[in-house]
Amino acid sequence: MNDRPIGIDAMNVYGGLARIAARDLFAGRGLDPERFDNLGMAARSVALPFEDPVTHAVNAAAPLLAGLSAEDRDSIGFLITATESGLDYSKSVASYVHAHLGLSPAVRLLEAKQACFAATAALRLAAGYVAAEPGAKALVIATDVALADARASYAEPATGTGAVALLVGEEPRVLALDPGATGAHSFEVQDTARPTPDRDIADVDRSLLAYLECLVGAYGDYRARVPEADVTGTFDLLVFHTPFSGMVKAAHRRLMREFGAPDGPSAGPADRRWIDEDFARRVAPSLCYPDVVGNLFSGSLYLALAGAIDTLRPQGELRAGLFSYGSGCSSEFFSGVVRDTAAGTLAAMDIAGRLDRRADLTFAEYEELLPHSTSSLVPVADRDIDPYAWKDLLDRVPDRGRLLALTSVKDHHRHYDWIAEGTTAR
User: Fold this and answer.
1) Which of 152, 223, 300, 378 has CA 20 to 30 A from 252's CA?
2) Residue 82's closest CA among 309, 241, 319, 266?
3) Which of 281, 304, 338 lies at the terminal end of a domain, its last residue?
C-alpha cells in the first residue's frame, strides 16, 4: 500500500502563439457591448493553421519533460490525453504525442473524453496508477482546438485553444491530492455537443444551469464524505472550471449561498458584500490566465490552478478546493494541498511570460486564420501545411522556443516537424 502523498508534481501551459482581444472580437462580430462585462475576459488564444491537439499537447509537455532527469523520464509509464478534439475514432491523440515527446516504449497510452471533465478523470486514473506502481509517474495532457466561429455567438470570444500538461507522481511539488476527499455529481443533459469535427453546438443557458446544479451536488457529496469540511474555513483557495470569469463568479455566489453564507440561501445585501469579498480573496487569483487565454475545455480548471499559484506565489502550503465540470454532464469537487514548492516549480515554466509574448491579431487577421483552424480536425487523405507561410506572425513571437508544427497529411497519416527556435528560416 502506497501511503506517500500523490498529486501534481509539475505542470505547464501552452496558450498558443496568437491571441485576439475580446473587445475586438465583440466589435468585429457586432455583439452587444453591454454584455461584455459579463464575460470578464481580456483576450483569447487563437490556433494557427499548423496547430492541432497534438502540437498543443507536445508544446505544453516538452518544456516540462526537459527539466527531468533521464531516470524520471523513464519512470513515466502512463500517458493520458484528455480532449474533445480527437483526430480519429480509434487511434488516440496520445499515440502521436508519445512519439514526438520521445518517451520510452514501455508506456501505456490512452485518450479520455468527457467534455471538460476528462482531464480530472485522467488525473484520477493517473493517481491510481502511481499508487499501484511505487516510483512510477504518469503524464496527463488536456489539449483542445477551439472551433468557435460566428455561429457560436457570445461563446466565440470566450473559447480558447491550447493545452495543460500535468506530471503526476509521489511527493508532488505542486498539488498533493487529499486522499478520499472528493464528491461527484453526474446526469445526462444536452448542454453542449460536437457532432462533427468542425462544429460545436452550445446551449449556454442550459450549460450554466447544469454547471450550477453539479457544483451544489458535487460539493454536497464531498461534504457527506468529509463531514468536517466547511466551505468558508477549510479552503484557503477555491479553483473552478472556468469557461469565462462571469460564470465562475455566479458559481461561487451559489456555493456560498447554499453552504457558507451566514443567513443561508436567502442572503441579503450584507451577505452579498461578504461573498464579493470572499470571491476577491479566494477565487479571483485563479482567473488571471483564463482571462487572457479563454476556455481550455478540460484544461480550464488546471489553467486556473496555474494562474492562482503564479498570482499568489505562496510561501507556505494552502488547501485548495477544486471543482471540475464537463458538459453532458459529469463533475467532481475535490481538494488538495498546494505545496510550498509550487510557486518555484511553476516559475521555471515562465507561463505568464510566454502568454505575454503571443502575437496580437487584428479582427481581419483572425477571420483569415479561422477557416484554416476550424478545419484542422476534419479528416482528409492528403494535405500539405507550410508553417512558414505565416512567417509574419511567427516573427511577431519573440523567444518562442522550439515548437512542434503540423506539416502534412499523407494517406490519412499526420506528419509533424519542429519549427527551429528563434527563426523562420527553413
Assistant:
1) 152
2) 241
3) 338
The answer to whether residue 84 is catalytic is yes
Annotation says 34 is catalytic: no
Q: Which of 56, 98, 100, 116 is catalytic?
A: 116
- CA atoms within 13 A of residue 239's CA, in its CB half-sphere: 33
Structural domain boundaries enclosing 182 = 178-338
Beta strand pairing call for 162-170 and 137-144: antiparallel
pTM, whole model, 2 decimals?
A: 0.95
263 and 382 both lie in a single domain: no
Our measurement of the distance from residue 169's CA atom to the centroid of its chain's CA atoms, rounded to an integer in Å, reads: 19
Q: Which of 170, 241, 252, 332 is catalytic?
A: 241
Residue 252 is among the residues annotated as catalytic for this protein: no
The alpha carbons of the chain give a radius of gyration, in whole angstroms, of: 21
Which among 51, 84, 111, 170 is annotated as catalytic?
Answer: 84
- Indicate which CATH number applies to the domain containing 185: 3.40.47.10
- For the beta sheet containing 18-21, the strands, ordered from the edge strand earlier in sequence to the opposite edge, are 43-46, 18-21, 359-360
Give the C-alpha separation, 7 to 319, whole Å: 13
pLDDT in tens, 58-104: 999 999 999 999 999 999 999 999 999 999 999 999 999 999 999 99
- Reported as a single tens digit per residue, the pLDDT across 144-203 is 998 888 888 888 899 999 999 999 999 999 999 999 999 999 999 998 888 888 788 878
Residue 351's CB: how many other CB atoms inside 10 A?
24
